[in-house]
Each structure stands twice: as C-alpha cells, then as structure tokens.
Amino acid sequence: MTQPESNAAGILETALLDVRHGQETAFESALQQALPLIRRQPGCQRAEVRPCLENPRRYLLLVYWATLADHEQGFRRSTDYQRWRALLHGFYEPFPTVEHFGPPL
What we know:
The chain is an alpha+beta fold and 105 residues long.
C-alpha cells in the first residue's frame, strides 16, 4: 500500500509523549517555545498537544500536514527541527513512536 502524499484532508501525525517523572511542568514550559516552531512550517495546518486525563505524564501530539513530505523532508530537515529536538527530546521516556495517518475513511 502506498502512502498518500497529498489530499484534501491532509496527513495526521501522531505521537504519544511520555515525559520523565517530575518533568511535566518543565516539559510544558519548553513546549510553549517549541510549538510555534512547528506551526510556522510550510504545510503545517494545525499542531496541538493534549494532556492525558488518566496519566499526568502522557501527552498526545497531533500535527496536521498538507503532505507527508512537509513533515519528513520539510520540518525534519529544518533548523527549526533542530531547535525542537533541543527543547523537547530530553524529556521523553521512552522515546515516542511517530506515526502518520491518511484521510478519514
């Protein structure tokens, strides 16, 4: 099965972000600096992080991209991604799996 590159509904990127115990407040502070970096990327239609109600260490990243390439070749190869990594990647335990989803059925 081929991955869709572009369509009216776009691509949804998801990741469960499990933050190290006791680092939730620091993570949320860093996130306030990081979200504008992704939101300003070409092809980023919307980006949000939601806290889990059952697990205070877990967050859900949702990013809506116009195309998969906007994320993989655009954001991931940008200097903004390097800053995103520096701000956030040290908080995760374990490191999240990022997945991409096509349009709704």
